[in-house]
């Protein structure tokens, strides 16, 4: 019943369902008294649509953190005259007693309740309303459904301590469920009498009693002419059990597998037991004996075993008892047994740990109900993806995504699954993955980051995100991914490696994106977070990647975004700039990033007065002589001063240094740069440079702007010539050549 991650485009049905669920009010419903959802009176929906609405709703609540559940959602399906339900699959905490109660008038044919721990015995009573139509029922992991709350009467004091006592319901049976054929009671709580519960059922076809301990299963023979599937996973077996199973001659699927780590089992499999199954269960097409220890050797001599081409013909089987099979099995579960490593296994599909195919079969078979086994299988896949090359990449990815979605709260699966995803999405597999599949990976990675503050999961998830093109591939979850990363960086205790990756991702996310994205991220506290990280590093006197990335991220997020520039100044950014300059005089990369950021601040006219102090102007003037990172630091310092000069002499509100002296140093710096310098800078727009051209108040600023344009269009013509033309640079340059105030060398360069 698990919905597999798919790689094909969504059907129109799925797209419409998804849209309606996300916009219930605008489509199927209206709000009554501003709180209760009601179906529009003229809407009539068949079961094909209603089933999908309910099942997709459960999936969305479970896997999409942005999706808001509605308390009154199930009441939309309370009246079979307007909505019909037939087959629904409900999971986990999403479902409560009142939700089932709301749909009790529906004629359900199939009802799967998986791990619905909030359901109590009230829901057992609701099940009776479906008794005349129900064919399939699963109560797997509904551990409280046989408990009702009893309030001991008249005990004032005790009631305060223990207001409700949980009492086991003993009298419920499947009396009246005349059509029920498929039943899953996996992980049923102890104390319920299974035999009494099931006795009224006339002809069962499939029964799952996973994780239930029964010493006597003799009652199963009452369905020996109808039972085709029996699952006894983790039931401690005995000779009596085996004798009963051997009488169920119609069985096509038998699962007696176990988790070999869970507890001590006395039972051991023998050659005789396997022979008994092969001789008596002649219709068997699927058998699972995973996790069992063989008491004796069931294999043929090793010389014979190694011979010939690998075969699935029973006659050549390496497992001796299976030579008696009439035809190969469709499925044989041998996970965590020694038998899976043999050469000739008479089955089309085998679960085991020998190779990729067997491991993927194991993940596929056990994901829904056996996370404890699945996490070990995914761990094996992780090793395969890490050491060898995955040959069934698409299938592996789909299975891991499905497991991570299904077990969002299972720590082991989140750790192993997120680690496997890192290797399955790296660049060598890139060509084989569609946009849709890569988006699904991003969704489950972000789910993992949201649900787990655990270091390993966080690190795996961040590393996996590094396999994507940023920001392009993360654009569809832009807000969410930024919020999660800032959340990681704002934690007081920090794992060094996660911090480094998260800052790197933050930096990449604000590089080359639209200004509205930058503004949104600024409002989330991005500037503050980066400054805090810088502050911490300064206190430790360390200038590492985190320090450099943080300044780089600030440089990116302030680009043409005045609000973020203002935040930088308001949160004492200039103080940190000076301290970093003093503490790390030799760190060229750091100087370049800091000056690039200040260039952005200086482009904002309203903020420039804050840069107009003797201290800052002296620092910028001294950096004009810097040889750090080629010309970059000197170039950016000159850019900052060019914007300040552009405000004219009257804005120069300081005595020291003199304006003329700084102008002189600027001319000297520009003349010292090599016009063919290759650049460590990326312009999305020339607008801030172009505005320095049509003015006569500061010829040196005009010269810096012209030099910048000349250098960029001559070294990178393909990229920057179109930008210059597009932004109207040509007429501005032509006009400037005619200006009397412009210096001769500036005009030459402009020409």
Automatic annotation (TrEMBL):
UniProt domain Zer-1-like leucine-rich repeats region: residue ranges: 196-337
A single cellular component GO annotation: Cul2-RING ubiquitin ligase complex
Domain Protein zer-1 homolog-like C-terminal residue range list: 404-750
Any single Pfam family the record assigns to this protein: ZER1-like_2nd
SMART domains in the record: ARM
Keyword Magnesium: no
Keywords: Acetylation, Leucine-rich repeat, Repeat, Ubl conjugation pathway
PANTHER family: PROTEIN ZER-1 HOMOLOG, PTHR12904
Subunit structure comment from the entry: Interacts with the ELOC-ELOB/Elongin BC complex. Part of an E3 ubiquitin ligase complex including ZER1, CUL2 and Elongin BC.
Family recorded in the similarity comment: Belongs to the zyg-11 family.
Name of the protein in its database record: Protein zer-1 homolog
Species per Swiss-Prot/TrEMBL record: Chauna torquata
The encoding gene: Zer1
């Amino acid at each position: 019943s698990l919905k597999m991650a798919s790689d094909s485009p969504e059907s129109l049905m799925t797209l419409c369902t998804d849209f309606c669920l996300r916009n219930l009010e605008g489509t199927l419903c209206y709000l009554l008294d501003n709180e209760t959802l009601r179906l529009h009176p003229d809407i009539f929906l068949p079961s094909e649509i209603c089933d999908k609405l309910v099942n997709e709703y459960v999936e969305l609540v479970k896997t999409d953190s942005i999706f808001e559940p509605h308390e009154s959602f199930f009441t939309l399906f309370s009246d079979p005259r307007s909505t019909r339900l037939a087959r629904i699959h409900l999971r986990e905490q999403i479902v409560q007693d009142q939700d089932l109660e709301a749909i009790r008038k529906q004629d359900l044919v199939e009802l799967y309740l998986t791990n619905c721990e909030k359901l109590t015995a009230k829901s057992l009573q609701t099940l009776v309303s479906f008794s005349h139509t129900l064919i399939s029922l699963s109560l797997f992991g509904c551990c409280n459904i046989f408990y009702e709350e009893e309030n001991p009467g008249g005990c004032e004091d005790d009631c305060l301590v223990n207001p409700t006592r949980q009492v086991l319901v003993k009298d419920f049976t499947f009396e009246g469920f005349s059509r029920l054929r498929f039943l899953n009671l996996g992980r049923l709580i102890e104390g319920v009498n299974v035999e009494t519960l099931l006795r009224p059922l006339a002809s069962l076809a499939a029964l799952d009693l996973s994780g239930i301990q029964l010493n006597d299963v003799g009652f199963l023979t009452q369905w020996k002419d109808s039972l085709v599937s029996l699952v006894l996973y983790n039931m401690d077996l005995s000779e009596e059990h085996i004798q009963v199973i051997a009488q169920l001659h119609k069985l096509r699927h038998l699962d007696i597998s176990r988790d070999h780590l869970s507890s001590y089992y006395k039972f051991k499999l023998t050659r005789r037991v396997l022979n008994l199954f092969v001789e008596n269960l002649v219709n068997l097409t699927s058998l699972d004996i995973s996790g069992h220890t063989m008491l004796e050797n069931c294999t043929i001599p090793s010389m014979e075993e190694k011979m010939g081409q690998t075969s699935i013909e029973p006659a050549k089987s390496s497992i001796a008892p299976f030579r008696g099979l009439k035809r190969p099995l469709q499925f044989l579960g041998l996970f965590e047994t020694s038998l899976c490593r043999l050469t000739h296994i008479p089955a089309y599909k085998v679960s085991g740990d020998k190779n990729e195919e067997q491991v993927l079969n194991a993940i596929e078979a056990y994901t829904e109900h056996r996370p404890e086994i699945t996490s070990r299988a995914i761990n094996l896949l992780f090793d395969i993806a890490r050491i060898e090359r995955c040959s069934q990449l698409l299938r592996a990815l789909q299975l891991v995504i499905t497991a991570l979605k299904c077990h969002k709260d299972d720590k082991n699966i989140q750790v192993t699954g997120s680690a496997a995803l890192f290797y399955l999405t790296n660049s060598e597999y890139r060509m084989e993955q569609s946009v849709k599949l890569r988006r699904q990976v991003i969704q489950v990675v972000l789910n993992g980051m949201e649900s787990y503050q655990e270091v390993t999961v966080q690190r795996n998830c961040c590393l996996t995100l590094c396999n994507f093109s940023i920001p392009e591939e993360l654009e569809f979850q832009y807000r969410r991914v930024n919020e999660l990363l800032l959340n990681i960086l704002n934690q007081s205790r920090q794992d060094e490696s996660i911090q480094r990756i998260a800052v790197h991702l933050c930096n990449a996310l604000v590089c080359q994106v639209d200004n509205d994205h930058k503004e949104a991220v600024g409002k989330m506290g991005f500037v503050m977070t980066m400054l805090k990280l810088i502050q911490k590093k300064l206190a430790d006197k360390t200038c590492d990647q985190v320090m450099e990335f943080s300044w780089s991220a600030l440089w990116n997020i302030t680009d043409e975004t005045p609000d973020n520039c203002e935040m930088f100044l308001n949160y004492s950014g200039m103080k940190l700039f000076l301290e970093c300059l003093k503490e790390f005089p030799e760190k060229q990369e750091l100087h370049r990033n800091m000056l690039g950021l200040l260039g952005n601040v200086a482009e904002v006219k309203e903020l420039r007065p804050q840069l107009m102090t003797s201290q800052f102007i002296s620092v910028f003037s001294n950096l004009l002589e810097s040889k750090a990172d080629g010309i970059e630091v000197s170039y950016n310092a000159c850019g900052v001063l060019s914007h300040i000069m552009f405000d004219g002499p009257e804005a120069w509100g300081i005595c020291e240094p003199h304006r003329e002296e700084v102008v002189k140093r600027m001319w000297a710096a520009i003349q010292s740069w090599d016009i063919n310098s290759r650049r460590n800078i990326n312009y999305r727009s020339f607008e801030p440079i172009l505005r320095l051209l049509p003015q006569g108040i500061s010829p040196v600023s005009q010269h810096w702007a012209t030099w910048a344009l000349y250098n960029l269009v001559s070294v990178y013509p393909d990229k920057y010539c179109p930008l210059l033309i597009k932004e109207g640079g040509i007429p501005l340059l032509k006009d400037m050549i005619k200006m009397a105030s412009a210096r001769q060398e500036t005009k030459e360069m402009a020409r």
